[in-house]
Amino acid sequence: MDFISDIFSYAFLQRALLAALVTGAICGIMGVYMVVRRLVFLAGGITHSAFGGLGLAYFLGINTLWGSLFAGLASAYAVERMTDVGKIREDSAIGILWSVGMAIGIIFILLTPGYAPNLMSFLFGNILMVTSLDVCLLFALLVVIAGVMIVWGRTIIYVALDHEFAMSQHLPVKLVNNLMLCLLSLSIILSIKIVGIMLLLSLLTVPASIAGIWKSDYREMTIIAALISIVGLVTGIFVSYLADIPSSAVTVVILVLVLLILKLICRKS
Amino acid sequence: MQEVDDNILIRLNKVTAGYGDKIILRDIDFKVCKGDFIGVIGPNGGGKTTLIKTILGIISSLSGSIDYPSGIRMGYLPQITTIIKDFPISARDVVCSGLSSGNFSGGLMSKPDYGRAEELLEWLSVGYLAKYQIGRLSGGELQRVLLARAIMCDPHVLILDEPTTYVDNKFENKMYEILHQLNEKVAIVMVSHDLGMISRHVKGIACVNRSLHYHNSNIITAHQLDMYDCPMQLLEHGKVPHTVLEMHN
User: Fold this and answer.
1) Which end of chain A is more exposed for a tag (fewer CB within 10 A), N or C?
2) Which residues of B touch A212 (CB under 8 A)?
3) Who contacts B131 (Cβ-Cβ below 8 Å, separation ≥6)?
4) Which of A162, A173, A180 best probes binding to B when mutated, by most B CB atoms within 10 angstroms?
5) In 3-state terms, what secondary structure has residue B63?
6) Is B79 on the interface with A (CB under 8 A)?
7) Residue B150 near residue B76, CB atoms below 8 Å
8) Conformational region of residue B67, where left means phi above 0, alpha means psi within -120 to 50, and beta covers everything else
9) Are B195 and B234 in contact (CB under 8 A)?
10) How buried is B198 (Cβ within 10 angstroms: 0-12 exposed, 13-18 middle, 19+ buried)?
11) Using CA atoms, how far apart are residues B56 and A164, in angstroms rounded to an integer?
12) Exposed e or buried b for every residue in B141-177, given b needs 16+ CB within 10 A?
């Protein structure tokens, strides 16, 4: 097969597949956490407000990764401050940051002289354009996330399960929540390059939802969700290679189809 | 100078507690000793749950101090659980989460003490629930699982906030039996509206209505109820004198 032989001859394909493996694992682990803690909307807010920082970095001519990294973490922090101190409802705060981020992002991108050819790849990602730096950062993040889960996994699960009871048992609830929010933000920002702002949310939710169909144990769900994300991303690359369509869109459509089919089968049986 | 007493498990000194700038309890002095079985009574909004959450460290006190020996284990059965019902976790694992204040390894690979968790569920006659996902349990079943979670860590103090709200009469009686058994080794603090039950089972009563008054006996007088504005029923069955109280304003 051409695809297999091309993998060996093209470095960008190797990087793309490596990125798919690592991103899939990250999105599987963090996706399950996000879904069970019902942080989907917050994750959407972080994703979209990262676009503001991304646009600013693009305007200033620096690596867009640093811009989105700053904006993503800042927005996660801002949501907490807006709800705690500003007494704004959490979903309202998220909604505000969501659209402000998009607004700032588009203003700066359009202010940048010349044509903005990268706009599509910001919004829909391009796994074929990942750099070695991207892959290294993703891999480092995966190591950190896996390490945190292995060492503190049970604590993290118990805090997520029942925060008040966890407090009564003197578990470091605030620390655990902040740490996980930080890791979720980092996962989102580093994955933007792969699947883009518009499609990232489904890579976090769909595999976790599929895993949830037949697994009711957190750890098993995580492993299955990670495998599903990886398969989805690799299939996306393969189809996009054959048909020359964006791989992220293919991945999302495939994953959602799988979810739909499994749901229908499970309803019948 | 404060007395040093090995028997004291928890001591609250002039504790003021509340939410934000809203003070619910002011200048509370309270102690829980070994072997205690304290019933906490008082009107709605009087601060019973606030008292319990302050003792447990769920809310931090605004002033005053709470002392307890290091390494003390407290079991907790909340009135309204904040547990996420559709969480992918089995009843057995929920019971094991009660171990988190004791000697507990937070690692993902560590094997929790499933044996003890299953024994506890069996003891509460819900052994068959061990592998059920918690979302599948009924209110009463969940309450038993949460009771098992509260006693999983072999606590020094067991704190219960209206434990009989969701359970049927049959289990309610069994629950008091269980509490009596536990009380041989464990100090118990229990919030309840059921004064009949309280007066039959507890050794001391704490009346909480913005402030706290402790009575070292299980007799509830009409005067007490009046003083603390407790709109509660006193119900007894069998050969027990009845008290019918006037309506509160």
Assistant:
1) C
2) 88
3) B90, B91, B92
4) A162
5) strand
6) no
7) yes
8) beta
9) yes
10) buried
11) 10
12) bbbbbbbbbbbbbebbbbbbbbbbebbeeebbeebbe
Q: Do residues A68 and A118 touch, judged by C-beta distance below 8 A?
A: no
Q: Are A145 and A30 in contact (CB under 8 A)?
A: yes
Distance between CA atoms of residues B120 and B111, nearest Å: 17
Among all residues of chain A, which has the CA nearest to that of B132?
A216
The shortest CB-CB distance from B100 to any of A36, A166, A221 is to A166
State the number of CA atoms in the 13 A half-sphere of A74 facing the CB: 17
Convert the pLDDT of each residue in A122-132 to its tens digit: 888 888 889 99
d(CA A233, CA A239): 10
Chain B contact present for A179, CB below 8 A: no
Domain B1-72+159-166+185-249 CATH class label: alpha beta
Residue with tokens 């994300």: A229
Start-to-end CA span in chain B (Å): 43
Q: Which residues of B109-133 are buried (b: 16+ CB within 10 A; e: fewer)?
A: eeebeeebbbebbeebebeebbebb
Q: Is B109 on the interface with A (CB under 8 A)?
A: yes
Dump pLDDT digits (tens) for A143-181: 999 999 998 888 999 999 999 999 998 888 999 999 999
* ipTM of predicted assembly, 2 dp: 0.85
Rounded to the nearest angstrom, the gap between the alpha carbon of residue A142 and the centroid of all alpha carbons in its chain is 12
Any B CB within 8 A of A244 CB: no
Q: B236 falls in which pLDDT band (50, 70, 90)? A: very low
CA–CA gap between residue A20 and residue A127 (Å, rounded): 8
Instruction: Kindly list the structural domains of chain A, giving each domain's residue range(s) and its CATH number in brackets, ordered by start.
Output: 2-268 (1.10.3470.10)
